Amino acid sequence: MAEYLASIFGTEKDKVNCSFFFKIGACRHGNRCSRIHNKPTFSQTILLQNLYQNPRNAAHSLEGNSTGKPTMTEEEDQKHFDDFFEDVFVELEDKYGEIEEMNICDNLGDHLVGNVYVKFRREEDADKAVRDLNNRWFAGRPIYAELSPVTDFREACCRQYEMGECTRSGFCNFMHLKPISRDLRRQLFGRRRGTARSYRSRSRSRSRERERGRDRDRRSRSRDHGSRSRDRRSRSREKRSSSRTRRSRSRERRSRSRDRRERKHR
Ligand SMILES: [Zn+2]
Ligand SMILES: [Zn+2]
């Protein structure tokens, strides 16, 4: 019997545990689900609920947008997404530890829209990240972070969507992941096999990009991390033991973003 229960755990046959929560880390019934949502006490994966705010979704719901035309081009949309992805990825990896995988949902249902799943290499790092991030704000909203049962994203993803055949579109209950551009993928994950050299070239291209986009207020708006983080940031600056060049480069980056924040408050 125990063996049978173990074999159906988290599947559709399991009448006790919710298979959606088990596989996807989110279920449309939320707390009212008739089956149990088993929240893990240890996991490599964390979920940041509804963190990515796609400006396209906001444009759709805006009243008075009667033209029916999308307010952003495909390229602008991808750029906005890539910038968000890179910011979150780099900051979380710098602060908490190596990331194996990061995925963001393009679904529209409330329980999945903008969900960011980050799978760390070490469970300790995921634990630290959840505890810390729940005290923080992003883009003017509090962050909701939790350890997630998702370990295998292939199981969580909608196969029809990957074939371009999902008929439920945004309201599907399996993950529809929004891909990052190939260039960004190469920057963030290409260094896995590589050395410090590739890391360095990554930050160089980041700062170049930043120069260019510095004055766009869309960017500064999305980077409102709240004032609490400044303290922590300076503390972690002392702790940082990596190479001097890298340290000073990121300090530069940080003071630039501080400038931006101050400009905004004026
Ligand atoms: Zn459920
Ligand atoms: Zn689907």
From TrEMBL:
Report if keyword Isomerase is assigned: no
Region annotation (Disordered) maps to: 188-266
Q: Which InterPro entries match?
A: Nucleotide-bd_a/b_plait_sf, RBD_domain_sf, RRM_dom, RRM_euk-type, U2AF_small, Znf_CCCH
Which residue intervals define the domain RRM in the entry? 44-150
Biological process (GO) annotations held by this record are: mRNA splicing, via spliceosome
Annotated ranges, domain C3H1-type: 12-40, 152-179
Q: Which GO MF terms does the UniProt record name?
A: RNA binding; zinc ion binding
* CC annotations in GO: U2AF complex
Q: Provide the alphabetized UniProt keywords.
A: Metal-binding, mRNA processing, mRNA splicing, Nucleus, Repeat, RNA-binding, Zinc, Zinc-finger
Please give the chief subcellular localization of this protein. Answer: nucleus
- State where the protein is found: Nucleus
Give the Basic residues compositional bias ranges: 188-205, 230-266
Feature: compositional bias, Basic and acidic residues:
206-229
Zinc fingers (C3H1-type): give the ranges.
12-40, 152-179
Q: Which PANTHER family does the record associate with it? A: U2 SNRNP AUXILIARY FACTOR, SMALL SUBUNIT (PTHR12620)
Give the UniProt family note: Belongs to the splicing factor SR family.
| Name this polypeptide is given | Splicing factor U2af 38 kDa subunit
Q: Which organism is it from?
A: Tetranychus urticae
